[in-house]
Structure formats: structure tokens, C-alpha cells
């Protein structure tokens, strides 16, 4: 006696479906589309779709999508599933994303919203980024943290440098004397890392970023310098304000708060987003005090934007891409940093915009395969140059 489709689906999602029932399961996918979407919805809301499962579930969902296509159903006929993505969070979106063609994506050229699926001209075997960084000590010696084991990795003036479970921290020794000395942490493309500063402030560095800081904070203020993108959770110290000097373009004054700074040189503006507390943003053309949820966008002048989408701002720290409303160029700049690639547009930049979320743990090949709904084509040249053809 055949088991009901719901039971087969449950075992499939758990990875326990017997090989003898796989063919029967896939033969019933097309006629059970609504049930399939409903079960995934329930699991997402129950928290069963965890970030560490996204790579496995993405592969499983790709098989389901192929089975759906084999039934003759068109992708444009499955938009009902897309409407529920916004309330699931990125893990659920990653889970269902492949089922409905990966990210949902629309083609803005001439107002078209349909067209043949995206094609990848060849297999692009580029792994996603991972935890790793280079620590430059006060004497100029560089330590590659990717390959270091837990424990004390260096002795610096006023502190021992400790690596523990992929995080760097400083253990004060009390032996200072003289002026401060500085360390610099740098994350190349394809790397990210977490750091606890000597005062207890926590810093997350996105790919292609750096932060310079003293091995012990002394004097009347705590001061660091950064480039790229970083998220700060600043330890409170009422008599010693915390200051971030951003790429020579902006200063941020803090007493105790959490905020994100995106200061990549190739972005249109330097964006500082406040999550909690209060910060003062200073630049040559003025200064502003931010409230939680506000973002200071610094270009030719400082623009304050209320009610920013904090989930979108913090997606990188939470292990996801959030491409909601981004242009092709904006999305590809994120891929360049995370996958350590160079993107080239063969015939100009297509007018394409993205929507949706996906975990950053998928390979570049899988990510590109998930994109659908446009006439875009890709090929890889010279090892790590992704050429976008139109």
C-alpha cells in the first residue's frame, strides 16, 4: 500500500526517505504543489529550517523544482508561493527559494517581467567565502588566522592576543608603559571574521574590510579606524567615549550602542545604520545624531533616512544575502567580495533588479543556477572573472 504524499514529503525533507520510495515521491510532486508549499511554510514558521541546513535543502529543492517543471507547470504559475517569502526570514526563503526558481527576480528592461530562464554557460566551481582574516601585529608581522589553532597567538604591549573558536580577543596583562601600539585586522575578499577589542567591544568584519585599533585603550577616548563594512556592539564606558574613524571620510562618536557601517569605496554612499543606542555622525559638511532605525547616507552631503530595513542591512552578519530591490550592479558587488571574483559586463549593464534572500553558504554555481526569469547569461573567464552576457 502506497504511503500518502505528506508522509513521503516529511521523510524527504528529513533526509530519511527510503530509496525504494523516491520514484513514487517525485511522481506525485506535480499534483501536490499546494501541500508541498504548505508543509514548507509550517516548518519555516516552526524554526525547523536552520541556516546550517540551507546547502543541503537547496540541493533537495532543486530536485523538486525540476520535478515540477517536468509536469509542465510554468514557473510564472507559482507566484503564490513567492508572496509568502517576506514573513519567513532568510533561512526559510533560502529553503523555498530554489523550489520557485531561486531568488524571485524581475527583468526591468522595456518593462518586461517574463522571458526565458537564466542560463549559465558553464559550470562555475567557486566556493562561498568563510571565516578568516589576517592580523598585522605592532611589529609588522602578519598572522593568517584561518590556519591558527585556539590559544595565545601573540603577546602585544598590554595584552595577550587569543584565538578561540574563530574569534579573536585580547587578554590584558597590565604591562603597558609608553605610548599605545596598534594591531590591524584585515579580511580579504571571501573572508569574514569576529573580533573582541581590548575594552570588550565586539566587531564583525565583512569581506574586504579592515580595522586598526590599540592593543589597550588608555587616555580619554577609545578610537579605532576602519574601512569596508563592520558591525559594532560597543561596550559601555561613560567616561571614555568610543570613536570610529571611517576611511578618512566620517567620524562616529559612541557611548554604548550597536550599529553597522558600510564604507566600501565602490558604493554610492557611506551608510551608517543605528540599531540600538545613540551615535553622532560627523563629516566635513555637518553632523547628525541618529536614533535607532535611522541611517546616515553620506555622499555629497549627509542624508538621514528613517525606518531602514534592518534585516536587509544586517543580512551579511546573519549569514545571508538580501537582494531585495537591488540592481544587478549592486548585487554583483556583493558577490565580488564574498566569492572573490571580478564581474565584467560584456555588453553594458542590463537593467535587472532582484528580490529575495539566500544563505551565503551556497557555491557561486548554485547561486547563479537559482537566478531565473531573465535573459541573463554567465560565463567564467581567467579563473575568477564572471562575464555577464546579454
Description:
- By secondary structure, the chain is α+β, with helices and mostly antiparallel strands.
- It folds into 2 domains: 1-118 and 321-390, no CATH class; 130-313, Jelly Rolls.
- Helix content is 22%, strand content 33%.
- It is built from 9 helices and 27 strands.
- It has helices spanning 5-14, 19-27, 33-45, 54-70, 79-82, 90-97, 310-313, 328-339, 364-370; strands spanning 105-107, 119-120, 130-131, 134-136, 142-144, 151-156, 159-164, 167-172, 182-187, 191-196, 202-205, 209-214, 222-233, 242-246, 250-254, 258-263, 270-276, 279-283, 286-290, 295-298, 302-305, 320-322, 342-345, 352-354, 357-359, 377-381, 385-389.
- The strands form 4 sheets. It has a 19-stranded mixed β-sheet that branches. The protein has a 4-stranded mixed β-sheet with strand order 2-26-27-23, covered by helices on one side. The chain has a two-stranded antiparallel sheet with strand order 1-24.
- Strand 6 (151-156) and strand 7 form a beta hairpin.
- The radius of gyration is 24 Å and the shape is globular.
- It starts with a helix and ends with a strand.
- Residues 47-55 and 72-121 have low confidence and may be disordered.
Features:
single chain; alpha+beta; Jelly Rolls; 2 domains; 19-stranded mixed β-sheet; 4-stranded mixed β-sheet; 9 helices; 27 strands; 22% helix
A few lines on this structure:
It contains nine helices and 27 strands.
Beta strand %: 25-35%
Number of strands: 27
Which term fits the overall shape?
globular
| Main sheet attributes: strand count, strand direction, barrel closure | 19 strands, mixed
Q: Supply the number of structural domains.
A: 2
- Low-pLDDT runs of 5+ residues are 47-55, 72-121
The helix tally amounts to 9
What Rg is obtained from the alpha carbons, in whole angstroms?
24 Å
Question: Which structural class should the secondary elements be placed in?
Answer: alpha+beta
Q: Mean of residue pLDDT?
A: 78
Distance between the termini: 51 Å
Q: Which percent bin holds the helix content?
A: 10-25%
Amino acid at each position: 500500500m502506497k504511503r500518502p504524499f505528506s508522509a513521503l514529503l516529511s521523510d524527504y525533507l528529513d533526509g530519511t526517505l527510503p530509496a525504494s520510495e523516491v520514484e513514487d515521491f517525485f511522481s506525485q510532486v506535480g499534483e501536490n504543489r499546494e501541500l508541498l508549499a504548505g508543509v514548507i511554510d509550517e516548518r519555516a514558521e516552526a524554526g525547523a529550517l536552520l541556516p546550517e541546513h540551507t546547502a543541503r535543502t537547496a540541493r533537495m529543492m532543486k530536485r523538486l523544482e525540476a520535478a515540477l517543471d517536468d509536469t509542465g507547470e510554468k514557473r510564472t504559475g507559482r507566484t503564490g508561493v513567492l508572496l509568502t517569502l517576506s514573513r519567513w526570514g532568510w533561512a526559510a526563503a533560502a529553503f523555498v527559494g530554489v523550489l520557485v526558481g531561486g531568488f524571485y527576480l524581475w527583468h526591468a528592461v522595456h518593462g518586461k517581467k517574463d522571458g526565458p530562464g537564466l542560463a549559465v554557460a558553464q559550470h562555475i566551481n567557486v566556493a562561498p567565502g568563510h571565516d578568516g582574516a589576517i592580523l598585522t601585529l605592532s611589529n609588522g608581522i602578519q598572522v593568517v588566522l584561518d590556519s591558527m589553532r585556539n590559544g595565545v597567538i601573540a603577546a602585544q604591549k598590554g595584552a595577550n592576543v587569543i584565538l578561540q573558536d574563530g574569534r579573536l580577543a585580547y587578554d590584558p596583562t597590565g604591562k603597558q608603559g609608553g605610548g599605545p601600539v596598534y594591531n590591524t585586522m584585515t579580511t580579504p575578499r571571501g573572508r569574514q571574521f569576529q573580533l573582541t577589542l581590548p575594552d570588550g567591544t565586539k566587531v564583525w568584519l565583512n569581506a574586504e574590510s579592515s580595522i586598526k585599533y590599540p592593543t589597550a585603550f588608555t587616555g580619554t577616548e577609545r578610537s579605532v579606524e576602519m574601512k569596508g563594512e563592520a558591525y559594532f556592539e560597543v561596550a559601555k564606558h561613560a567616561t571614555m567615549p568610543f570613536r570610529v574613524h571611517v576611511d578618512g571620510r566620517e567620524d562616529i562618536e559612541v557611548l554604548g550602542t550597536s550599529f553597522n557601517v558600510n564604507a566600501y569605496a565602490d558604493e554610492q554612499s557611506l551608510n551608517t545604520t543605528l540599531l540600538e543606542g545613540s551615535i553622532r555622525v560627523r563629516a566635513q559638511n555637518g553632523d547628525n545624531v541618529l536614533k535607532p532605525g535611522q541611517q546616515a547616507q553620506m555622499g555629497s552631503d549627509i542624508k538621514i533616512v528613517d525606518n531602514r530595513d534592518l534585516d536587509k542591512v544586517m543580512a551579511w552578519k546573519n549569514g545571508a544575502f538580501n537582494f531585495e530591490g537591488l540592481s544587478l550592479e549592486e548585487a554583483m558587488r556583493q558577490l565580488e567580495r564574498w566569492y572573490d571574483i571580478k564581474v565584467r559586463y560584456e555588453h553594458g549593464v542590463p537593467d535587472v533588479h532582484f528580490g529575495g534572500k539566500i544563505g551565503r553558504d551556497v557555491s557561486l554555481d548554485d547561486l547563479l543556477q537559482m537566478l531565473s526569469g531573465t535573459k541573463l547569461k554567465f560565463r567564467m573567464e581567467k579563473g575568477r572573472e564572471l562575464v555577464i552576457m546579454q
